[in-house]
Amino acid sequence: MRKIMILGWAGAAMAAPAHSAVTASSDGGFAVENSVEVAADAATVYRLLGQPGRWWSSEHTYSGKAANLRLQPVAGGCFCETMPGKSGRAGSVEHARVIYAAPDRQLRLSGALGPLQAEAVTGTLTFDITPAGKGVRVVMSYVVGGYIRMGGMRIAPIVDKVLAEQLVGLKRAAEAEKS
User: Fold this and answer.
1) Helix (H, G, I), strand (E, B) or coil at 101
2) Architecture of domain 2-178
3) For the chain, where are the alpha helices, taking DSSP H only?
4) CB 125 within 8 A of CB 15
5) What is the pLDDT along the chain (179 residues), one digit of tens a residue?
6) Which residues pair with residue 97 across a beta bridge?
7) Which one, of 61, 2, 102, lies nearest residue 70 by Cα?
8) Signal peptide span per the entry (predicted)?
């Protein structure tokens, strides 16, 4: 399963956001940052953060369906996924936990995403929303530290591409709300 998830992350197809970069990396961790301008207001973008099923790629879920994702944008809220099973026995996965929620401005989560979940790491995913142009600028940063068997420098560009894809999905969903 781990190799499949890594390959899925490595094959992420996406439209490039305005800014995407690995800002630091070492064997013990990495930091990535992606940003995009969105032609929508901050309230719309923040509300959509709490609806990942509308913008997160199904290719980057355990269940294969983004509709199975949920995120409660309050401290302690879960970014979780339901995994339907046989005979009505559903499984689940916690991708991250909300640690800071400032409506229309910032949402911060703690968790090891995707293949990092099987590693001994801590990750902090932050969404910053600020006014820009005819809408807002969303900066998504993810900082990961700990023991990564494959090495932080090796996986950082893959994680960067996958997260950039999700940010483009958020932009698309927010701008579709406006039209």
Assistant:
1) strand
2) 2-Layer Sandwich (3.30)
3) 2-10, 42-49, 152-178
4) no
5) 444 344 344 444 344 456 889 999 999 999 999 999 999 999 999 999 999 999 999 999 999 999 999 999 999 999 999 998 887 788 999 999 999 999 999 999 999 999 999 999 999 999 999 999 999 999 999 999 999 999 999 999 999 999 999 999 999 999 998 76
6) 78, 110
7) 61
8) 1-20
